[in-house]
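Input.
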Amino acid sequence: MNVRTRAPYLTTLTAALALALTGSLSAPAHAAAPDSVIANDTVWKDTDGNPILAQGGNVLKVGSIYYWVGQKLVKGQPKAVNLYSSTDLENWKFEGPILSQSGTTGPLATGLWLGRPQLMRNPNGTFVLVVEVNNGPGNRNQLLFATSPTVDGTYTPTTQNSVMVNGNTIGDHSVFVDGANAYLVYVGDTSTGINQTVNIARLNADWTAVADEPPIWSASNSAHTEAPAIVKVGATYYLFASGMDWWDATPTSYRTSTAMTSAGWSQGSWQRVVTRPGSANSFGTQFEQIIPVVGSQGTSYLYNGDRYSQFYTGDGNAPGGIGKNAWYPLTFEGGAPVLHGYTDVDVNTAAGTITGNRVANGRFDQDVAGAVPHWTVKEGSSARTEESNATLGGDHHRQLSVYSGYVSQQLSLPNGTYELSFDHRSSGGQKNAYAEVKNHGSTTPVRVHVNTSQYQWATKKITFTVTSGKPDLGVWADAGGWLNIDNVSVWPAS
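Output.
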């Protein structure tokens, strides 16, 4: 997941082609782009170069190492819970499966559901894994608890069979650890239907079962949420959840409490998480978890999103995008969470800070038919996204195609100097075709022209200074030939 550009099919430019413009032609400035990032809208690979297979799981920090568990979901293969490790949340080593299906009987029989793995560490040192299973085709989910003395060991189920929760089957679930207490956060079924309630239930002392008591909070799921999970920020508990739309991406909602009590959670109602730029489907994802990144400079938060649309096999479209996972910065403004759709995310785990390429959908690989997500296409423009004739790892990738018209995106940037980088290719022949930055604090746009013939992918750059905080990126072509744009990024210039 640390690939920033499609290097296999890009042409490296000489310094003469790498234009750095600050109103006039000058020497290139060096951008402070990191060596590795969380590269959204790509197929993430582990440190051995294999695709990461980890759906619907969570990330647990043990010492200085982050461990990520997720479901191995590959058509025609037994399911497993995979474990990955990382020190920077960007480069992940495959540790192996820690719970796997085999045989024809029991809750781990091949062919049954095995999903939503959640990993936690009990104060006694035992690692506990909680997964959804079912007891046969067509049946709803129950829970299976498994334990290991080490985080990367083989996990042994604590019971021979899966168990219902408070006498019912369940939908999605997660776990939340608050000091010495752990909780199951889940969408529950009732006799009247599935996904009818949202619940928080205490786990027993060793965290291997739901406590033999009613949930501390249970409410009607009238907001139609799933994938619920809690994070504590300061003195406030935030319960996040996705919408319910089968395989599709959905908006994310939240509610808050100042205490893990029924009275606390019963206050208020579900609110929509603000997205920047605006996104109706959490940038093509379904919410999974908020990952705290604690360091010497404080705590930042990382939104863990899944793309189940990659597994969609029904009729019609399931909007999402390239890649099975996408992680984005989450900030809190006046106590309200804001999700930022950065194309690339750089995490400094030692400092506890998150920065990134603030262009949203800069690879044009968030897939919504007939649109260019997070970009504004001027009325009458021919601009659209289309599949490139270059592929990477067998996955189709998209690009912006502009025959005529204007496409733009407004960024929110602290004042300072930045470098805009993008890849392009063109038939040439247009009277005018260019990429620009305008409204950055000057009345004169900073512009680089791309109306000459360039059939191989090449990179151009613009250096610009922001004093307005709200610059606009734009691409213009006035017909006469085709123009493709891809891999748009903005990083601070050093």
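The CA atoms of residues 437 and 446 lie 5 Å apart.
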